[in-house]
């Protein structure tokens, strides 16, 4: 038996249960929201956790760029006062 037929049978059974039983439909909806929430949580942790070396590098570069902008701003302000 080809695996795609097995997958089709499993998908058909799950779809039949979702259509016929309201509790299973609610379970599937709740499970999908829960999986989406966990995905978003892990994505946020990976992209924003300061222990991540890539995030550390991005924070360092952003801070360096901001410092350079502030130095230029203060030098221009000091030159305009003189």
What do these coordinates show?
With 82 residues, the protein is mostly helical. It has 2 domains: 1-41; 49-82. Helices cover 90% and strands 0% of the residues. It contains 3 helices and no strands. It has helices spanning 3-20, 22-48, 53-81. Helix 1 (3-20) crosses helix 2 (22-48). It is rod-shaped, with a radius of gyration of 27 Å. The termini are far apart.
Q: How are the secondary structure elements laid out?
A:
Blueprint: H1 3-20, H2 22-48, H3 53-81
Entry keywords:
82 residues, mainly alpha, 90% helix
Shape: rod-shaped
What structural class should be given to the helix and strand makeup? mainly alpha
Low-confidence stretches: none
Residue share in β-strands: under 5%
Helices, by number, come to 3
- How many whole angstroms does the radius of gyration measure? 27 Å
In short:
With 82 residues, the protein is mostly helical. The chain has helices at residues 3-20, 22-48, 53-81.
